[in-house]
Design goal:
CATH architecture of the largest domain: 3-Layer(aba) Sandwich
Radius of gyration: 19 Å
Order of helices and strands: EHEHEEEEHEHEEHEHHHHHHH
Number of strands: 10
Shape: globular
Largest sheet: 10 strands, mixed
CATH superfamily of the largest domain: NAD(P)-binding Rossmann-like Domain
Helix content: 40-55%
CATH class of the largest domain: Alpha Beta
Strand content: 15-25%
Distance between the termini: 43 Å
Number of helices: 12
Number of domains: 2
Structural class: alpha/beta
């Protein structure tokens, strides 16, 4: 299968490397020092599930160097979505699927508006991974799972082909008949994890162990569930409580990528996470005081380190 990874960060780099190792023709779209390191030394993944070294790795800053592919893994940061989506045209054939494994609940509509709804497949990625150094991806823990499906819930040959590629690569995956629900389910947990680990500047271990920060984590997720229900998403009303129990099984050192970006002085996805909950809540008439506070408290850092 010909696959292009648009955004070779933690998620794109990890899953792209797994697919390349399994024999797929994978092109990595990256930039800067990361791109140069991949071109020079290949792409390395350090993981408890087994290290990978894809060398040589096909890498470029320009999708036009790659040409049409069967599937595009769209994994850029949310603030870069529109710019990156506008560069996808050279990768698109008549049946090319573009699956966004980004965060947030507005990502698929953004893609559809730019590349055409016929190309968009909804996706949800579960992994803790980040660029450790140029050309190197660090996978924390053992969780690695992709959920994807056509926006209308049908099972199509292109989705089945991508699922088969994931299976051959050892990637845990699921073809979802209701990808909108799956996207909101991840959104509930991600907003809670990103808000607490970024605001408190601690990984999940101490947050879940402290009664008050644990309650904060739960309330943030409850607000997202209430918003989803008001938006017509068939979430379990007790979904937040179930996700809190799930958090108890996670590696204690796990932090959301937004918290890692905050530590590094990078831009934050806050406007599409707690910020989106506050904005969409206001539009829907749903009270979201805790997420609104998180959005206000971290707003100073949205564009990166204000002192740097």
């Amino acid at each position: 299968m010909r696959i292009a990874v648009m955004g070779t960060g933690g998620l794109g780099g990890y899953f792209g490397a797994r697919l390349a190792q399994a024999g797929n023709d994978v092109a990595f779209i990256a930039r800067g020092a990361h791109l140069e390191a991949i071109r020079r030394e290949g792409l390395r993944v350090r993981s408890a599930l087994g290290d990978l070294h894809i060398a040589p790795a096909r890498a470029s800053a320009d999708p036009a160097d790659v040409g049409p592919v069967d599937a595009v893994i769209f994994a850029v940061k949310l603030w870069d979505s529109e710019r990156a989506a506008e560069q996808l045209a050279p990768l698109l054939g008549p049946r090319t699927l573009v699956v966004s494994f980004q965060n947030g609940v507005e990502k698929d509509e953004t893609l559809a508006r730019i590349v055409g709804r016929e190309h968009v497949v909804g996706g949800v990625g579960y992994i803790a991974a980040a660029i450790e150094a140029p050309g190197v991806i660090r996978h924390t823990g053992t969780m690695q799972r992709l959920v994807f499906g056509e926006l209308d819930g049908t099972r199509t040959p292109r989705v089945e082909a991508f699922a088969a590629a994931c299976a051959a690569a050892g990637i845990a995956h699921e073809v979802s008949p209701n990808i909108r629900l799956a996207t909101w389910e991840k959104f509930v947990f991600l907003v809670g994890l990103s808000a607490t680990t970024a605001l408190i500047r601690q990984p999940i271990g101490p947050i879940r162990a402290n009664a008050r920060s644990r309650a904060l984590f739960l309330q943030i997720m409850r607000e997202v569930v209430e918003l989803g229900l008001a938006s017509g998403v068939a979430l379990d009303p007790a979904y937040a409580e179930g996700r809190l129990a799930f958090a108890d099984s996670m590696p204690a050192e796990m932090m959301a990528s937004m918290a890692v970006d905050l530590q590094r002085g990078n831009r934050l996805e806050l406007p599409w996470l707690s910020g989106a909950v506050a904005r969409l809540g206001q539009q829907a008439g749903v009270s979201t005081p805790v997420n609104s506070f998180v959005a206000d408290a971290l707003d100073l850092y949205v564009s990166g380190n204000p002192g740097g």
